[in-house]
Design brief:
Helices cover about 70% and strands about 0% of the residues of chain A. Chain A is mainly α. Chain C contains six helices and nine strands, in the order E-H-E-H-E-H-E-H-E-E-E-H-E-E-H. In chain C, helix 3 packs across helix 4 and helix 4 runs parallel beside helix 5. The chains are: A mainly alpha, B mainly alpha, C alpha/beta.
């Protein structure tokens, strides 16, 4: 792949325009899987963004133009890693336009700056706050009902959305350029994330039922139905404490200590368990 | 069980390297979620021939840290590293000392949980260190050397891998020592008490944490409904 | 605290939708900025990112100050977002003095000093914020609701 191959083959007037081609896009796609490998606190994902779009830049520019293009994409960037593929695609298209003199550098910079916040909002609330807990809750319920391949279901369900969004996002972004947001509008991930909370709720309930059932049958079990009630009470108390901003780690050690003191203390007065 | 300390070290090294490699998935590379405790601990379990232990432990640890979100510049506790340490300790203890029970699980979770916060500190340090990658990228742009820029993510990943693997190795060693020293000292009442922690406290806390990830109040009602349905459904199906 | 005033130069992003929205049980997001209402792409993106059940609007700072001072939104739980400290101070001086300001994200720049990994403030920003604090406003630095807030007054007195 020579850096100016596309420019040197003037088959038709359209071919005179700088184009990056499918293989370059695939290289951008591959690199986008390492998008967050050099995150830093001053400009966040800037190195990642520049690294991902680099194959397109080296095809479009040389010399001073290339230096300028690299510096352009090393500005502050912070968004959601999966959603960024759509932005990468659109930015590659805009870079082609810039190389052909149809758009300006400022327009590319302001496009990226405008899109990164809302894209992060959509991606964070869909993937991190909705799909991940939902798929995990489903798989946890699976494990608790003795389905050994439940983690594979988690991976398949999650990555179906993840990979489709990445691959489709990159190519749709490239095809539509700045207008990529229209496509995102049609997918409407926001409403979906809202609904996934109901599914997650059911899965957590099922996991709870299975766990309580297992605990009441175990050898360590203290009594009969009483402890199902005790466990439910325990979960609700912990839930309330978490809501009141007491962190999980304090509850973990606090309740462990309480449990040890109670059992060992009771046992020293009423020795049920022999040493 | 007749195993040599050499075999123990070999297994420990294997789990550390696999754990460190999968941990890269959490942020730096791919993000296909193989770094989630739910997947990571069973993978380690498979390597040690104890898939079932890995599955249950992974699911429990997954619940405990279900609420940690990576959004923007904020850094949550690193549940992946904690899971790797807890999983490796339980599996190594099971394979080389022959004890697999709820007491060991509970002890390992209690000893390994702080690793998540040490991991958080490490993540912050690494992102600060990455500033020099950012500077080198700027230099590459000034010099017009794209191949220099293209090398930087690999450097970032290598650094993360080395640092996180080291933390997993140290964390696992400390947790193992805690298990090896503490477990034989426990009498029957203490074993029973930790069993109760493993059977009741950990799953209950995990469920409570998972419930906080559900944003809608009506969805929580659905949880309660499906909970009761499952609990009494099982009893009903089994008959009196 | 209602409305909740926040400086965040990413405006609406993951932290807002995934953490603050459920934490404050928001009903409305109001962006006070002179640039945003005139940027149709940005407006479209924000409307897309904010769930439908929330009201969303962006007003120039002068109009936002007027609307807030007149209590247009009644008891609705509102998040007011600013792109910069300067915008927040302009709203404060524009007839709507508020008692509390959250600083969520302010990017690094050459002349800015680091307070947290997400908040970097310049001397000019600090001068303006001191003005607010002298008039009784509490200023905290906190990106997520789960973090421990840093009181800016205390942070500054520690430096000296």
């Amino acid at each position: 792949m020579s850096a100016n191959g596309a420019v040197l083959t003037p088959a038709s007037p359209a071919a005179l325009e700088p184009r990056v081609g499918r293989i370059t896009l695939l290289r951008v796609l591959w690199r986008s899987f390492f998008f967050q490998s050099a995150c830093n606190y001053e400009r966040m994902q800037n190195v990642g963004f520049a690294f991902c779009i680099l194959p397109a830049l080296t095809r479009l520019y040389q010399g001073e133009d290339l230096k300028r293009a690299m510096a352009r994409h090393l500005e502050f960037f912070n968004s959601h890693p999966y959603m960024t593929d759509a932005l990468l695609g659109a930015t590659v298209r805009m870079e082609e336009d810039l190389a052909a003199g149809r758009t300006t550098e400022d327009r590319i910079l302001s496009f990226k700056a405008t899109m990164m916040g809302p894209m992060a909002a959509i991606g964070d609330s869909f993937f991190w706050a909705s799909l991940k807990p939902f798929a995990a809750a489903l798989a946890v319920a699976g494990v608790f009902s003795d389905v050994p391949w439940a983690p594979l279901v988690f991976l398949a369900l999650y990555n179906m959305f993840h990979l489709i969004l990445r691959v489709y996002g990159l190519f749709a972004g490239y095809r539509m350029g700045e207008r990529v947001f229209e496509k995102l509008y049609q997918i409407d991930l926001v409403q979906f994330s809202d609904r996934s909370h109901y599914f997650a709720g059911v899965c957590i309930g099922v996991s709870g039922g299975l766990l309580v059932d297992r605990a009441t049958r175990s050898e360590a079990a203290l009594g009969q139905n009483l402890e199902a009630v005790l466990l439910i009470a325990l979960v609700l108390i912990m839930f309330q404490l978490l809501k009141r901003k007491i962190t999980m780690i304090w509850l973990l050690y606090g309740f462990t200590l309480l449990c040890l003191v109670m059992i060992l203390g009771l046992n020293s007065f009423f020795p049920l368990i022999e040493r | 069980m007749a195993t040599t300390s050499l075999e123990l070290l070999r297994d420990g090294a294997l789990l550390t390297l696999v754990g460190g490699a999968l941990a890269l998935d959490r942020r730096g590379a791919f993000q296909v979620m193989v770094s989630q405790p739910l997947v990571l601990v069973p993978v380690l379990g498979l390597l040690m021939g104890q898939l079932e232990t890995g599955l249950w432990l992974g699911a429990t640890v997954q619940l405990l840290w279900m609420a940690s979100l990576i959004v923007g510049a904020s850094v949550p506790p690193n549940e992946t590293l904690a899971a790797a340490v807890i999983g490796a300790a339980v599996l190594l203890y099971g394979r080389h000392f022959g004890v697999v029970d709820e007491t060991v699980n509970a002890l390992a979770v209690l000893a390994g949980a702080p690793v998540a916060w040490i991991g958080r500190w490490l993540d912050i340090r690494l992102e600060r260190e990455n500033l020099n990658l950012c500077m080198r990228a700027d230099e590459a742009a000034r010099a017009g050397t794209p191949f220099v820029l293209a090398r930087l993510p690999a450097l970032g990943l290598l650094r993360t891998f080395l640092a996180e693997s080291a933390l997993i190795a140290v964390g696992t060693a400390v947790t193992m020592i805690a298990l090896v020293v503490a477990r034989p000292l426990l009498g029957a009442p203490e074993v029973k008490a930790f069993e109760v922690v493993g059977f009741y406290i950990l799953p209950a806390l995990g469920l409570a944490v998972a419930m906080t990830t559900v944003r809608r109040r009506r969805a929580l009602l659905l949880s309660a409904g499906s909970f009761l349905l499952v609990l009494f459904g099982i009893r009903f199906l089994e008959g009196p | 605290m209602n409305p909740f005033y926040r400086v965040d130069n990413r405006l609406v992003h993951g932290q807002i939708i995934a953490t603050w929205m459920p934490h404050l049980r928001l009903q409305r997001i109001l962006i006070a900025s002179d640039a945003v209402p005139n940027n149709p792409l940005q407006m479209t993106m924000f409307r897309m990112a904010i769930p439908q059940q929330l009201q969303f609007e962006a007003l120039p700072i002068k109009n936002a100050a007027r609307a807030l001072a007149a209590r247009t939104y009644g008891n609705e739980r509102v998040l007011v977002l600013f792109e910069s400290v300067t915008d927040a101070v302009r709203l404060f001086n524009g007839g709507n003095p508020f008692a509390f300001l959250n600083i969520g994200n302010v990017h690094h720049a050459a002349d800015r000093r680091r307070f947290t990994n997400a908040v970097y403030l310049s001397d000019a920003d600090l001068e303006q914020l001191k003005g607010l604090m002298d008039r009784g406003t509490r200023v905290e630095i906190r990106s997520l609701p789960t973090e421990t807030p840093i009181d800016l007054r205390l942070a500054l007195s520690e430096v000296r």
